[in-house]
Design a protein that fits this description.
The chain has 203 residues and is of the alpha+beta class. Helices cover 47% and strands 14% of the residues. The strands form 2 sheets. The chain has a 5-stranded mixed sheet with strand order 1-2-5-4-3, covered by helices on one side. A two-stranded antiparallel ribbon has the order 6-7. It starts with a helix and ends with a helix.
Length: 203
């Protein structure tokens, strides 16, 4: 499944690149190819891609013209701040985000705190399955995965593993003080501290 999704992800990223749409890859395939020591260790469910809000409508048109079917009418994203797409004979869903956090209560508070322009400015160039893309900066990656795990109450072991693997990968790059300053700016410092404490107790 990972190989099949990686092939489709490469095509999607190249499609966006050809249309000058910048993308940040979130979670699954990014973690599989860039964080885990072996891509096969991190199963991938769906494909999560972040685009700028100003590019969302155009990205939606590009996907629809390529055979993707959206879960919501054009221009609508719902509380998830994302559009979910499916395509015939494709075994995964594509989640097209324009924000890192959804707007469902009580998360709307964090949506307003997070500076998405800053997120994009700090994004790093990467390759995903042979295609050019961007990833979150090391600091933003750690903060995002802390939020994501807490959002799901760490209900699956994969949330803990993602967070632990990312901390280990960025151990020499991440600066604790700068991470907490960034998390505080986003209103996520308490969540980050809780997740780090949780991680320290996991064998």
């Amino acid at each position: 499944r990972n190989l099949s999704l990686a092939e489709d992800a490469s095509l999607i990223l190249k499609l966006f690149s050809e249309n000058n749409i910048k993308t940040i890859i979130l979670k699954g395939i990014y973690l599989s190819e860039n964080i885990y020591p072996d891509p096969g260790l991190r199963p991938i469910g769906d494909l999560d891609i972040l685009v700028k809000k100003s590019d969302l409508n155009f990205a939606n048109e590009v996907l629809r013209s390529s055979g993707y079917i959206a879960s919501l009418p054009a221009g609508k994203t719902g509380a998830l701040n994302a559009i979910v797409y499916s395509k015939q004979n494709q075994q995964f869903y594509l989640h097209l985000h324009y924000h890192l956090i959804n707007s469902s209560w009580p998360l709307e508070f964090y949506v307003k705190k997070i500076n998405m322009d800053l997120i994009w400015q700090c994004a790093q160039k990467i390759r995903i399955s042979g295609a050019d893309a961007l990833s979150l900066s090391s600091n933003d990656q750690i903060i995002y995965l802390a939020y994501h795990g807490m959002q799901h109450f760490f209900s699956k072991k994969i949330y803990d593993l993602d967070f632990l693997q990312t901390i280990e990968k960025y151990r020499d790059l991440a600066e604790p003080e700068s991470i907490f300053i960034r998390a505080k700016e986003f209103g996520l410092d308490f969540i980050l501290r809780v997740c780090l404490l949780r991680a320290s107790k996991i064998d």
